[in-house]
Structures are given as structure tokens and as C-alpha cells.
Amino acid sequence: MDADTKKFYELKAEIIQAAGHPIRLAIIEFLSRGEQCVCDIVQHVDAQRSNVSRHLSVMLKAGVLESRKDGLKVIYKLRTPCIVNFLACVDQTLRERMKREAALLEKL
């Protein structure tokens, strides 16, 4: 693998890692409905503001989110809304796995 290809895979992994936490997944799904104030995100995920801010920072750095100021509020939105398609694929994979496991349990 050449250096450019390797770097590309490293950047892909960074984006996937940026989404790879339960709070971050909840934030992404919440923002899939449209841009939101950080105060609403905190309430939605039921976590401390400082904790949510750290998660938002990780996703901003990876390019998953973008933010803007609106007076004193910070508003976030998905920079890459297509990430929701990836999460839908993950949801489908989980549903199929649960069906297989349920079928196995029925056979026992």
C-alpha cells in the first residue's frame, strides 16, 4: 500500500472513531433532524455539558460536524449528513444479528 492510500485509510478511521461512542452516536442521530443548540444536545443526551463539549470537539476535529455562533449560543449541525446512511447500515446489521440470535435460541 502506498503512503497516500495509507493516509486515506487513517483519515477514514479517524471519522469512524469520531462517531464510535454511544453519546456521539446519539448526538449524530439528534443532529440528523437539523441543527441544534449545544444546550438542546446536552438535554437530549442527558450528560454534563463539559462531557458533551468534549464529544462535540472530537467530531468537529474529524469533520463530522460544524458549528456557528448565534448570539451567545453555539449551534451544531452535521457537516457530513451521509454519516446517517452509515448508521442506518449499522442499525440494519444489528437487526439481522438479533434475528439470527433469536432463531438460534428458538432451536434450543
Note down, in words, how this protein is organized.
The protein is an alpha+beta fold and 108 residues long. The protein has a single domain (3-80), classed as Arc Repressor Mutant, subunit A. Helices cover 69% and strands 13% of the residues. The chain has helices spanning 3-19, 22-31, 38-45, 49-62, 83-107, and strands at 36-37, 65-70, 73-78. A hairpin with a 2-residue loop joins β2 and β3. The longest helix is centred in the last third of the chain and has 25 residues, at 83-107. The protein is flat, with a radius of gyration of 17 Å. It starts with a helix and ends with a helix. 14% of the residues are buried.
Q: From the coordinates shown, what is the CATH architecture?
A: Orthogonal Bundle
Strand order of the largest sheet: 1-3-2
For the record, give the distance between the C-alpha atoms at the N and C termini, rounded to a whole number: 46 Å
Largest sheet: 3 strands, antiparallel
Number of extended strands: 3
Q: Write down the domain tally.
A: 1
Q: Please, what is the CATH homologous superfamily? A: Winged helix-like DNA-binding domain superfamily/Winged helix DNA-binding domain
- Give the C-alpha Rg: 17 Å
Helix content: 55-70%
So what's the overall shape? flat
Mean pLDDT, rounded to whole units?
A: 94
Give the CATH level 1 class: Mainly Alpha
CATH topology: Arc Repressor Mutant, subunit A
Order of H and E elements: HHEHHEEH
Strand proportion? 5-15%
Counting H and I runs of at least 4 residues, what is the number of helices? 5
Unreliable residue stretches: none
Helix and strand content put the structural class at: alpha+beta
